[in-house]
Fold this sequence. Notes:
Layout: H1 2-81, H2 84-97, E1 102-112, H3 129-141, E2 146-149, E3 152-153, E4 160-163, E5 166-169, E6 172-174, E7 178-183, H4 186-194, H5 197-204, E8 208-219, H6 227-230
Antiparallel strand pairs: 1-7, 1-8, 2-3, 2-7, 4-5, 5-6
Amino acid sequence: MRRKEYNFVLFIAFIILGILVAVQFRSTIYFNKQRAQSMLDAEKVLEQLNREKALETDLRGQIEVALAQKEAIEKTFLEETFDWELNKEWEIIRLKAGLVSVKGEGIQITLDDAPAKVGGDPYRLIIHDQDIRIILNELKNAGAQAISINGERIVTTSEQVCAGPIILINGNRYPVPYVINVIGDADRLYESMMASKRINIMKQDKIRVDIKKVNEITVPGFSGNIQNLISGLEEIKK
């Protein structure tokens, strides 16, 4: 009788063990399936991101070609009119408006978020749009003649808007690092940035900041929609 009870208990134990093994097996299969699906989704996102980057590069190339064609047409028109005063005035306007590429001595500032391993308030470990605006204002006060951020010319209507981990500049999205090219008196600009309260606060928060003088630096012309420069303005009729 005891042997039968022992066999019965053993039988029940094997059933329970079998159920546990089956549950564990199904859980493992489900987990592996979910992981495979996640990897597949990540690959799809990466492929989409690469396609978007390729499209962006292609569109930027088309914009540069269109701008070159526009400049060629403008040059041909001005040459055909033989109005050298008009030509000279137009070149000055384009230069002041930031529509042409310029070069000269200046400084280059590279800004990057703090390393991920650094502790503290996460908000203070990343670069925000207000940081960029303050630095740009300080550069202008120090005599900056031309400024670009990641290849985007900063003009009077340029805005720097924070959008999550990126910043919108002239309507285009840019992640860190931010490379700011500035033309002007290199010594004065450099001293201004080294004495900048905002720059020093960012350094204290472990934001990576690199400032260097450059003998010759190029700032491209504004490549956005020129109509945005004068949108909302209306001529006063005399």
